[in-house]
Amino acid sequence: MAYWYLGGMDELLIDLDDYMRPSKSGCPWGEAFFRRRLRDAIRDKKLDVKLVYLHRSSTKGHYHAFVKLWEPIGRVEALVWQLHLGSDLYRGRADLMRWARKIPAPSLLIEKEPIPNFYKSWSYKCDCEEKHITEKIMALPPDKRCPVWQMVRGYSPWELFGRSTKQVEKSVSLPVGIVPLELIMREDIEQ
Predict the structure, then answer these.
(1) What is the pTM of this model?
(2) What is the residue-wise DSSP string for 107-121?
(3) CB neighbour class for 129 (10 Å; exposed up to 12, middle 13-18, buried from 19)
(4) Of 81, 64, 75, which is closest to residue 8 (Cα–Cα)?
(5) 27-64 CB burial, b ≥16 within 10 A, e <16
(6) Where are the alpha helices (DSSP H) in 6-110?
(7) pLDDT tens for residues 56-73?
(8) Taking the domains of the chain in order of start, what are their residue ranges?
(9) How many CB atoms lie within 10 A of CB 105?
């Protein structure tokens, strides 16, 4: 089972990966980065925050933060605030690209269980047992893909940016100045 929480016009949904990794001061990165940036925005009256709800993700050391605002803000502004507050860069880039291509770009977070004592209910629920991994979903015939994933996310990140490779990159010395595209495209470098 998966519970999908979609952000409203008065919410920021922030996916804080590696929240617990130590910062320079030794405190968890999420504690230092997210809290400091949010505190500065509140103090300088850039964000009018009603409440913050922090929830442990099903991935160890990761957290989801929900920032409820007093007033609605624009979609692009919300997406930029989410990135500024430390949300996952890939998620943020995909949302921005969907918006640029006029594809509905809801911010969303997916949980394995309903969030306890939360200020709102989940938006959608699906029966998927596994994590929604694009590679696995796209390998399925369209009629076998998660209907919530198809409805809410629409396009896969591959359709937005191209298929990601997982290969280990080898060293390619790029020159300063004009970089020949042959060097950018090179995948197999002899050592």
Answers:
(1) 0.81
(2) -EEEESSPPTT-SS-
(3) exposed
(4) 75
(5) ebbbebbbbeebeebeeeeebeeeeeeebebeeeebbb
(6) 29-43, 75-84, 89-100
(7) 887 777 889 999 999 999
(8) 2-131
(9) 21
